[in-house]
Structures are given as structure tokens and as C-alpha cells.
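call fold(seq) -> C-alpha cells
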Amino acid sequence: MSSILTNTSAMIALQTLKSVNNNLQQVQSEISTGKSVGSAKDNSAVWAISKVMESDVKGFKGIQESLSLGESTVAVARNASETVTDLLTDIKGKIVAAQEENVDREKIQGDIKALRDQIGSVVNAAQFNGLNLVKGTDDMNILSSLDRSGNSQVTAANITVVRQDLSTGSGTFGTGATLAGNITSSAATIDSTNAVNDLELTMAGTTAEALTLTVNGTTFTQAFDTDAATTIGAMRGQINQAGLTGITAAGAGAVLELSNTNSFSEFDVSWNSGATNTIASVNNGDTSENASAAAGAGAATLVYRAEEVAMSTTAQVNEGDGYRINVNGGAYEYVAGKGETMEDVARGLKTAIDSGAETGVTTSVIQDDTTGAWTVLVDYDGSDAVAGATMTLTDSGQAGGSASGGLFGLDNIDVTTNAGADSALANIETLIQNGIDSAASFGSAQGRIETQSDFIGKLVDSLKTGIGTLVDANMEEASARLQALQVQQQLATQSLSIANQAPQNILSLFR
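ret:
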């Protein structure tokens, strides 16, 4: 049926043309903007995902800037640590040269002072944008990532750079909780006469069997002569004539008393008096050897003269924990920094005592192979006429202080005396190791920052690629669709024109 009121064909042609024009407009928008999803109405889900990813990209670009700043700061600290280590090595060379007595130690001390001042200049100048990682104890956190969980919760991740204090400050002894239980002296006095470290061997028997005694690898053999007292007397003569450094033999009758006046060297002693003769041993310096069973053979340790100040094997060392050794009334302290151990405390106490003014006092640090305990050995040779044969020895500990510097003791190195040169040689090794540890720590942190920075750069590229995959227009496809839609538009226009002309045909019916 034909109608002049309702032109169905024109209506259909018009809707088709509108659809083609809408599609053509969308394709033209894709071509002009380069995006297939330019707003939330194009595809709300994809648009929302892309916006979250775009915000992450902006965040990671900020992280790249943070990492670059942090890497530069750490690089300055690493270079400073390496320079300090080199300067400490130079100081060691001067200290080694000062071990000879026929050198001008005053001039060597002047060179050491110049190198020490240069270390101070390097440490003070090693800052980047006002932040110095080789002074103080506070760590630095560098923003390294934004971690997004499955429920869209975002948490910040950091790279922690441990600050390495290379200052020479002594710190401040605390007034907090007592730590006295973590440090224990073996005696209340340091005895230069070595009375507490003697090993007594008492021989009994009349059998004509030889007595064999080995001291630190040197073996003495004495044939049985008349009785035990005569035999022991002859053995005393052999030992004293051997010239063993610091080892003397004394006693009366059948008692052989071995004394060790070496400061820090202990010796193994073994004996054999035959199958029927017996020897009872008492080691006054080592209670574990006291009152050994009488037998024809045995062994003991002839311990060193120095007294022991033992550190706890179980206590945790916290920043600000201070420990003190009092020698003849002089207080020598070390306050632990962040991350330090009992080894650091023991070496710090040794350095403090070595830097003091106690005449005839020398120190060493040892670790027990079995328990792992660190011990400060304090020896006195009796050369201080005021103190006499003994010096008092006490200890204490207190929490709540401010840490000593990593190069604590450097300012007190003095090679103008024999004792000073000897102690400096031992202490400089600790300082050099501190410098090496600092440089290694900064180097490791810098490497990690570089790796993270490279990863963030690649991650940003991957996110950009992903966003492009979601929202970017396919230009080849858009071009082909544009041409097809243009043809469709022309055809739809022509179809609408034909449909609008249809009512004209009805006029022919009335002619």
C-alpha cells in the first residue's frame, strides 16, 4: 500500500543514514585522537582500568626521581667511605714505620695527624642536598615502589640504606637500665707478678723412670735422680736455661712451679713421669684444671698473665648500650651504635683503654672458639711505680647513651712511644675494617638502587604499552572502516533521496 502520509522507506533510510553518520563520527574521533576509548562512555570498564594504570605510571615516574636522588646521595657516601679507607691505610703505613725505634716518631705522628684531619674533612663534606650518610646513626629510606594488591590497596615499599657513622666521637654513657650482667671481669685486680697464673706440678715416687715435660712444643727429659725433689730440681734448671720467653720455673722440693709472664700468650703443658711415679697438678689461673687427679701423665694450660673481661654470649646489643672498664680508677667507655655486636663493644673498649693514660697497661681482644664469646684482655707489667704490683679492675654497663663514632679512637693514636705504636698497630686494623664495611654497605645499597631504577623504567614502559593496548585505536582498521562508512553514507543518502521521491510517483495515478 502506498501512502502520502507515511513514508516507511524514507524512515528506514533516515535511520540507516543516522547510524552510518554516528559510526563515521566515532571513526573520525578515533583517527583524530588516536584512541578507541577516549572517555568513560566509550567503554567504562576499560576506561577505568586505563585510568588506574595511568595513575600508577605517574607514581612510578615520581619513584624514579626518588631513586635518582637516593642513588646520588649513596654514591657520595660510598666515595667518602672509600676515601676514608684509603686514608686509614696510609695511616697504617705510618704506624708500621713507627714500629722501628730509630725513626723520627714525632714527624711520623705529624703525618698521622694530617691524614686524620683529612679524614675529618672528608666525613664532614660527604653530604648531598644536606644529607650526610657517614655521620650519625639514623637510616635513610628511599621510596622504591608502589605495590598494588588484588583489592586495589596500595602500599609503599622502601630501600633502607643503613647509615655508617665514620666520625670519631666518644659518645655519651647512658643513665638507663643497668647492663652489668653482660660484662664480667675475671679478677678485681691486674697482677703484674702473675701469681694467679702459675701451674704447680708435684711429683711423688721413687721409681727410676725418666720425667718428660713439654712446654709449648719444647720437650725436656730428665732421668730420675735419687728422689722426686732432686729430679724436679734438675728439671727446673733445664727449663730456665732454655730461655723460653716469659716462662720461668721455680718451686721447692718436689714442686715444679711454672710461671707465664707473657701478656696474652698461653701455652700447653704436658708431662709423663712413668708408670709408677705420680704428678698432681694445680693450675691457679684456670679453675677447670685445679686439683687434677694424681697420675703419671697429664696435661694442662699455662694461661696468660692478663686478666679477662668477658662479654655476654646471649645479650642483645642495642644502640646506646654503654660498657665501661675501670683500670686503676680510670673509666674507659664504649657506647654501641645501631646494628653493632659484642665484638664491636669489645674492640671499642680495647681502643678506649689503649687511648688512656695508664702506664704499663696493654690490651688484646680474643674470641673463644667454642662459645664464640668475646673477651677483652687487660694486662699490667708493673712499670707504673705509683700503682705498684697491681692495678684495680672493675666493670659496668648502662643503657640509654648516645653511640660512639665508627672511627672512635682515631684521634688518640699516638706513635711517639713504644706502647703507643704497638697499640696503634692493632687498633688501626679495626678502623680500616670499619671503613671497608661502610664502603661495602653503601656499594651494595647503590647497586640495589640502580637495579630498582632500571626495573621501574622497564615497568613504566610495560604499563604504557598495556594502556595503549587497551585504549589506543587501530589506525589500519580505522582507515578501512572510514572508507567503508563513507561509501555507506553515500549509499544511505542516495537511498533516502529515492525514498523521498516515492510519493511523487503517486501523482501519475491522477493524470
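The chain has four domains: 8-34+473-510, 46-161+435-464, 180-190+310-404, 193-304.
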